[in-house]
Amino acid sequence: MKKCVCFLLGFVTLNLLWLAAALLLGTRALPGPFTVYAHFGEVFSSGIISHIGASLLRIATALLLAFACGVPIGLLMASSAHWGRLLHPLVYFSYPIPKTALLPVAMLLLGLGDGSKVLILSLTVLFQVIVAARDAAAGIDPGFYQVAISAGAPKSALLWQITLPAILPELFTSLRIGMGTSLAVLLLVEAYGTRAGVGYYILDAWSRIDYTEMYGGIIVISLTGAALFLAADLLFAKLCRWKS
Prior knowledge:
Oligomer: single chain
């Protein structure tokens, strides 16, 4: 209940700031929230649900790839000094590169379809996951492993019963950051070679100078992101009860 009240207060505060900015600037390029909400039905009647579905599919695929690759790499770096020395420079040099700068390369190699878009979204999240998994695994008390080995636990049990539960909270943090980052990058990757996606929807409305529809799309992205964060929080509370 308290979280719902805080969420509602944040939503109201954001809209009040938006209203103040619209009144202060007095430009058609920034309509007030009441104007946008009055035309919100037109946003949904224009088929934005299908655009949301296309964007969520790209984000889900990218996150799945990022975690499927990033977690094993991070664990390998934490558990092996040899692999850590080899992979640390690669991660440190690659992490700061703006992944959106690689979009032209991705489109040249994979074409204008979903492959290049998913690749950029996945790379944007991948290095966050690697670093989070590595640091979380490196911070596990070795005593836990020693006790389990003394009790005759196999290596698979060490992974599933100690390592993964210990790093799970950090992975959820990476998931939240990754979802937010993916939504932010979405506008750019969906600007080329597609006619489906919330990013395309917003840019298309902007090109038609339909500002109410454009801001409606921005609100939809915001609400979608909030729903994803709430879903992640619920899953975190269920799977990481000792942290909740």
